[in-house]
Amino acid sequence: MTLDKIFITKPILPSINLLQESISEIWQSGQVTNYGAKHVALEKKLRSYLEVANISLFNNGTIALLVALKALDLPCGSEVITTPFTFPATTHAIFWNGLKVIFADIDEKTMCIDANKIESLITKNTSAILATHVYGYCCDVEKISKIAKKHNLKVVYDAAHAFDTKIDGKAVGKYGDITMHSFHATKLFNTIEGGCLVCNDESLNAKIRLLSNFGIKNEEEVLDCGINGKMNEIQAAIGLLNLDLVAEEKKKRKVIFDLYQNLLSGIKGLGLMNFDDNHTNSLQYFVTRIDPDISLVTRDEIFERLKENNIITRKYFYPLCSEYSIYKNIPSSNKANLMVANKVKREVLCLPFYGDLPLNKVEEICEIIKKLMI
């Protein structure tokens, strides 16, 4: 069986005519960056959409994470507890801030940081927790909050996979001190590149904004060591148009999600995503888990067979961040400390998932998997 090449995702893009109109407005204004009209409008629209008190837009999510940690004034060289089962940017943001990465294992079901493993890693030098909401599964935010309060720690959430996600009806961005959302082209909502930080504290948001613009207060004052994290007007224009497309994209993805679930359920050794009733599915990825102890084939064999058929999947997140050369020698990277993460890294396979993916292609993908596994 041969297929046209199918990628893991495809970004939503606005009408080229509408984008040209929007760019014409930017050209007429003469302001292409530095908090122009599009930037201001997108911030306002996203603040309402995400149901958050404060928001600052960024040129990408990695810079946003760097600024989030900087804004919290964590002691230089202090320890930040995080997970190895995440995108490199998460741990790199800790390292770039001159902080020490401490890895905690993940929860077997959600694949997020295991809140029950955090407290044993806390020392007098621990200053914060940086946890990732993985594939739209949410961290145990209530337990993490209790631990943070008990030990006077800051909490930052990487919500790159959790756009518009709610826990018990409450926006995910309302938890912790700061939450980062990514607007990369691979995400449900995108500005091609981009991201934002949201927080409940107005004074903290003011510091975030200061740091995102070199620490400049005005024409004559620079108050802190900031960075250039500002979103430009072209990105903001695309974001304004794309935000209007998210609802339809989610409807399409839900149909595809349900079809995958229906066609792949009941296969021995193949695990599927199941969300608790108390929080929403972000519809960012469609994730399968192939148990090598039960399945007739391994995850890697399925990956290669799909690739042979021009179907591009992803082993998110393999290898673990704890296996990178810059982190592998720290004590918390020891496999004995990360038993679940080292198990899950061999099981996860993300399948193509985007609104324009034809349903017959979903059926063909599932048929290939079934032939290998049944």
Summarize the structure in words.
- By secondary structure, this protein is of the alpha/beta class.
- It folds into two domains: 16-243, Type I PLP-dependent aspartate aminotransferase-like (Major domain) (Aspartate Aminotransferase, domain 2), CATH 3.40.640; 246-373, Aspartate Aminotransferase, domain 1.
- The chain has eleven helices and 14 strands.
- The chain has helices at residues 16-29, 37-49, 61-71, 88-96, 141-151, 202-211, 233-243, 246-264, 299-308, 339-344, 359-373; strands spanning 54-58, 79-82, 100-103, 126-132, 154-158, 166-167, 170-171, 178-182, 195-199, 216-218, 221-222, 270-272, 286-290, 348-351.
- The strands form four sheets. Strands 1-9-8-5-4-2-3 form a seven-stranded mixed beta sheet, with helices on both faces. It has a three-stranded antiparallel beta sheet with strand order 12-13-14, covered by helices on one side. A two-stranded antiparallel sheet has the order 6-7.
- The chain is globular.
